[in-house]
Amino acid sequence: MTIWDSIILGIVEGLTEFLPVSSTGHLTIVAKMLGLQIDDPSITGFTAVIQIGAIAAVVLYFWNDIQRIAIAWVRGLLKPEHRGEFDHRMGWYVIVGSTPIVIVGFLARDIISGPLRSLWWVAAALIGWSVVMVAAERLSSKSRPLTRITLVDAIVMGLVQCLALIPGISRSGATISAGLFRGLDRVAATRISFLLGIPALVGAGVYELKDALNGDVGAVPLIVGTIVSFVVAYASVAWLLRFVAKHTIEVFAFYRILLGIVLVILLATSTITAT
């Protein structure tokens, strides 16, 4: 992997990590176009590690919220009278909602980094989950703001987040769709999606670090890719929150379908190979 490869992949990660278009799917496609071996453990490790840059951008963007929730969560542990506060409950929601993907991701790690890295899987997931996103947008009441989120909402979104381990589905696309089906408004579903992603993506990045460093990637491309993804992701997060406040997420679904169809054509004509 060259420095230019890491810059390009860092840009792709930063742009797509929090948009409901599948960062892993896009990274897999772009890595293939760059001539990289997409099922190589060092390459899959690299794509997981540079996610930490995107997560750092989210932490910085939501720092005041995260700090407030963390303080309220600890205060509630120490003083029972504070356990009914919204921020204390939100702390538990993030913890509980993040747990399923940590467990499933660890148990299914060999499948995720191996067979599921096929571009056929990516194409199928891009198209298939787009139908779910459109249904979520059109069927949701979008009647509940963030302050009305419940533990059940967090559990459902956390369980659905596990499906994003399949490249092409999109972690944010899965969790936002689940939030909409639960009746949350777009902004609430999106903010919870961001918060649920922090523990999961940091854990995946740290776990995959050894594979990225032990292969042909090297430390310098990892650092460059992570920094680039941080810068681009910060702008992406700010833009998406403004966008979902006034616009439907269906535009992302239609983009995903188009990309999936193009990918199927390229694979079917042997213009590119699946792995």
TrEMBL record:
<feature type="transmembrane region" description="Helical">
    <location>
        <begin position="219"/>
        <end position="241"/>
    </location>
</feature>
<keyword id="KW-0573">Peptidoglycan synthesis</keyword>
<keyword id="KW-0133">Cell shape</keyword>
<dbReference type="GO" id="GO:0046677">
    <property type="term" value="P:response to antibiotic"/>
</dbReference>
<feature type="transmembrane region" description="Helical">
    <location>
        <begin position="189"/>
        <end position="207"/>
    </location>
</feature>
<dbReference type="GO" id="GO:0050380">
    <property type="term" value="F:undecaprenyl-diphosphatase activity"/>
</dbReference>
<feature type="transmembrane region" description="Helical">
    <location>
        <begin position="92"/>
        <end position="112"/>
    </location>
</feature>
<dbReference type="GO" id="GO:0008360">
    <property type="term" value="P:regulation of cell shape"/>
</dbReference>
<comment type="similarity">
    <text>Belongs to the UppP family.</text>
</comment>
<keyword id="KW-0961">Cell wall biogenesis/degradation</keyword>
<protein>
    <recommendedName>
        <fullName>Undecaprenyl-diphosphatase</fullName>
        <ecNumber>3.6.1.27</ecNumber>
    </recommendedName>
</protein>
<dbReference type="GO" id="GO:0009252">
    <property type="term" value="P:peptidoglycan biosynthetic process"/>
</dbReference>
<keyword id="KW-1133">Transmembrane helix</keyword>
<keyword id="KW-0812">Transmembrane</keyword>
<keyword id="KW-1003">Cell membrane</keyword>
<dbReference type="GO" id="GO:0071555">
    <property type="term" value="P:cell wall organization"/>
</dbReference>
<feature type="transmembrane region" description="Helical">
    <location>
        <begin position="253"/>
        <end position="274"/>
    </location>
</feature>
<keyword id="KW-0378">Hydrolase</keyword>
<dbReference type="Pfam" id="PF02673">
    <property type="entry name" value="BacA"/>
</dbReference>
<dbReference type="InterPro" id="IPR003824">
    <property type="entry name" value="UppP"/>
</dbReference>
<feature type="transmembrane region" description="Helical">
    <location>
        <begin position="118"/>
        <end position="136"/>
    </location>
</feature>
<dbReference type="GO" id="GO:0005886">
    <property type="term" value="C:plasma membrane"/>
</dbReference>
<keyword id="KW-0046">Antibiotic resistance</keyword>
<feature type="transmembrane region" description="Helical">
    <location>
        <begin position="43"/>
        <end position="63"/>
    </location>
</feature>
<keyword id="KW-0472">Membrane</keyword>
<comment type="function">
    <text>Catalyzes the dephosphorylation of undecaprenyl diphosphate (UPP). Confers resistance to bacitracin.</text>
</comment>
